[in-house]
Design goal:
The complex is a heterodimer of chains A (about 160) and B (about 180). With about 160 residues, chain A is an alpha/beta fold. In chain A, about 30% of the residues lie in helices and about 25% in strands. Chain A is elongated. Chain B starts with 16 loop residues before the first helix and ends in a 10-residue tail after the last strand. Classes of the chains: A alpha/beta (about 160), B alpha/beta (about 180). At the A-B interface, helix 1, strand 3, helix 2 and helix 3 of A face helix 2, strand 1, strand 5, helix 5 and strand 6 of B.
């Protein structure tokens, strides 16, 4: 049986204080661990971005009084982004060539966050024809800028 | 008696042919190979450490479908269990059951319900209170869509989910690096 014996034997009639390490059972244990972990391994790093819906649903509350809260919108259009608000804010971020200007959006969101550090809500409103990957990229930047209470609405209704 | 160069003497008295061949300087090379156990153990320990680092107690909640490539996002949080609506260029499915064709949804720009989807989600909604009597209904559904899907289709699916009481949408993404500052939860 494979093992490791450390040091020499005992001197004279003394009992040896060394003990062999059984390697074969240890290898069996490691192989069992490897097989279990291979079966349960998750190779895809998936995650989620949460959003509420801003459209009529089954539980729409009709008796709610109109809110005076200033709403902030991020429209994702085919021509670029528009950061707008009910306070009259209207900032257009045109596309850089054929791609959306993510850096520009990040900068504008950061500026807006500095103006209102306590605001957590923002409504993302994509237009029809915008690709899903572009919508997710915009939502990712919104969450990254600190607007955790993100909602998703239809850009055509704005 | 003439003087000769001394030859090999050891073990010549043993009456075994293979010993005699070995000590005479001849004999065949041994076909046995010793296994290096210590490097093998090092390899197994390294493998176990690597697999432990990627271990997830929640398991695989979403399977990667062929032909469906999800977008990447860096400010995302872990997935939770919820009904899964998957959308690719061909079909819209709820928990691997076909609900609608993506092409049919793209044909009209009107915001309309997807009836099979509304009915199935409504059933899941009603079953929730039976299966989870002590838990509050969160109204969350996971949307797993291909990166090239038009938002028009997403919008119709979201509208249908809202009709059934599922107003919170979790967009499944691939966790990517880079991105902006701040960060998710």
């Amino acid at each position: 049986m494979g093992g490791i014996a450390v040091g020499g034997g005992g001197h004279g009639g003394k009992k040896s204080v060394d003990s062999e390490i059984p390697l074969i059972p240890f290898i069996d244990l490691l192989l069992c661990c490897v097989m279990f972990l291979l079966v349960t391994a998750v190779w895809n790093k998936l995650a989620r971005i949460d959003a509420n819906q801003q459209q009529p649903g089954r539980e729409a509350q009709l008796d709610q009084p109109p809110e005076e809260h200033i709403r902030l919108y991020l429209q994702v259009k085919n021509a670029g982004y528009v950061l707008a608000g009910t306070d009259g804010t209207n900032i257009e971020i045109q596309k850089a060539g054929d791609t959306y200007d993510i850096e520009g959006l990040r900068e504008k969101l950061r500026d807006r966050r500095q103006q209102e550090p306590n605001r957590r809500d923002l409504i993302v409103a994509p237009e029809d024809g915008v690709l899903y990957s572009d919508v997710v990229a915009a939502m990712d930047e919104v969450v990254g800028a600190g607007f955790q209470d993100m909602s998703l609405s239809d850009g055509a209704n704005l | 008696m003439p003087i000769h160069t001394p030859g090999r003497r050891l073990l010549h008295e043993i009456p075994l042919k293979f010993v005699h061949d070995k000590v005479s300087g001849g004999g065949r090379r041994s076909v046995d190979a010793s296994i290096a156990l210590i490097p093998f153990i090092d390899f197994l320990v390294t493998l176990v450490v690597f697999l432990l680092s990627s271990f997830s107690a929640s398991g695989e909640l979403l399977a990667q479908r062929q032909g469906l490539i999800m977008p990447e996002a860096s400010n995302a949080v872990d997935l939770e269990i919820a009904p899964i609506i998957s959308i690719d260029s061909q079909v819209v499915m709820l928990d691997n059951r076909r609900m609608a064709d993506t092409g049919d949804l793209m044909a009209s720009h009107n915001l309309e319900r997807i009836e099979p989807l509304v009915q199935d989600l409504d059933t899941l909604h009603r079953n929730w209170s039976i299966l989870h009597p002590r838990d509050q209904f969160t109204g969350t559904v996971i949307m797993q869509a291909d990166r090239g899907v038009d938002f028009l289709v997403i919008k119709k699916v979201m509208f249908s989910a809202a009709q059934a009481g599922y107003t919170n949408i979790s967009f499944a993404v691939n966790r990517g690096g880079g991105g902006g500052g701040g960060g998710g939860e």
